[in-house]
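Hi R.,

Here's the chain you asked about this morning:
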Amino acid sequence: MSACGGGGVGGGGVGSAVAAALHFFAASQCLVREEWLPDATVHNGSTWDFIVVGGGTAGAALAARLPGAVLLLEAGGDPPQESIIPGFRHHLKGSEYDWNFTSVDDAVSSQALINGQQLQPRGKTLGGSGSINDMVYARGFPADYEEWASLVGEQWNWTNVLKYFKKTEHLTDEKIINDPELMEYHGRNGDIEVTGLNESMYTTTKFLEAFEELGFPIVKDMTYPGLIGAGRFSHTIRDGQRDSSLTAMLNKQSWNEKLKVVKNALVTKILIENDKAYGVEALINGDSFTFLVDKEVVVSAGTFNTAKLLMLSGLGPKEHLEEMEIEVIKDLPVGDNLHDHVMVLTYLAADNGTCFYNEAESQMELIRYLYDRTGSYSRTDSMGAYITNKDGTVPEFAIYPSCISVGENFYQNCVNMLGFQHKICTQLQSELESSELLGLAVVLLKPKSRGKVRLKSADPLEAPLIYSGTFCDISDLDGFPSALQIAWSIANTSYFRAVNARVIELDIDYCNNIGTEDLKCKAQAMATSAWHAVGTAAMGSVLDSRLKVRGVRGLRVADASVMPKVVRGNTNAPVIMIAERAADFIKEEYFGL
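And the predicted structure, written out as tokens:
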């Protein structure tokens, strides 16, 4: 890749032949590439106006917006070049570019997963999870933000946050742009492109037809609050490449001599004296550095690592910090309030014909993409269906379909990306010998259950302990039997009846041994993270409404950990909105802007 600049190829889960093809085409034609900001050389003990901890979705956006001398410290390095290819969106999960967090086995939920542990992929690279996610553009619903406003103040209500969603958005989705009513909710002049096509892939069309037959309204815009139903999502893609706060915002700061990015820099402690944050300690290539700050440290390390860093720095539950032999600076409920959308995966088997996967054709599509960034690798056509509450005002569950072709090797993804037990993955793989698999992710969008994040030790190199808390409020199970049956009813719609779709009864040992209601037990055993964990440094408890850590001057948090309650949708766009708000809070306070 040196002929074009940028990083190397092939570090993620992409096969060696594909990696070689990527290298050849990219080096010779400079088509598949992204220029990352260079790794800066900075002096130990240097002083900055602002230090941003974490160059993920929030940190990249925030650092791009802040005036003054800004130091961005990112624990990972550059993403591999294949991260920008939409068709490879799943390949970096579980790789060296992932923190590869897992939850602690609670011996009750997720017992169909290996060791009872939920996988929690999080990007360990510039761009963070925005460099490895599925690029879905979702916001949640107005009720989510009205709920925030009731807890922390009106500046977080729907009207106010909508302005910040629109600020960052450059909408080009063909399904939406010519509809004036829908466009009232969208921006055209922002940094990140939000795109989509009028034409639908065959698989998606068949799923949409099935949901319509089941009575779901078909909607053009899945972010539109006025109509809730089934539809295709918009995605953050520009010119056939992943668009994110990294590619669209941070990477555009090459002109800014006051912004410095240091990679492979693990921040191990926030330095606090007299209730004022004055700097950070970091490990860079094994060496210890100290950086000082005049104005603020902003932590954007993500739901798990932000909680970990705050606790390592003496901000957290008093009893836990004392147990870890860490000096308590402020007794705060850091790490509490962890929650996530709860995902239960279920599968149908069907005759061949819905997925249309052909290995030779796929290789030709890859060559097409490398030639001119078009074809199936340049886009994604994911969709969802929302099941509303009784009065129809907000979604309660979502169903996200997927399709796996006859003969595909699903086993490795089943084990390594989803984390299911080998017995279950073997059963699903055996179905693929003669049938397609129709995956149906049934997701609870507003769980009452809460978990927590705690330190394993005072060693900053140790991963935090993640207690998911899934179904600790047993009422979260109540809606799953009905939601699963709605998902399975796809098998009774016209098209899927014609391809002999049938529900696969998975052999779950946990439910053979426990005398509980069958569907509730299956949901409990199969439950996993939807990778939208939030809440461990929440506004209203750890933070005030302007994202400042309570009782500590010069310290703010901006990432998914600040959400007091999870929104009903993917969290990437809301995290960028939070970063935009943080940047404005800071500019108002220090620069009067």
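The first strand starts at residue 47 and ends at 53.

Let me know if you need anything else.
M.
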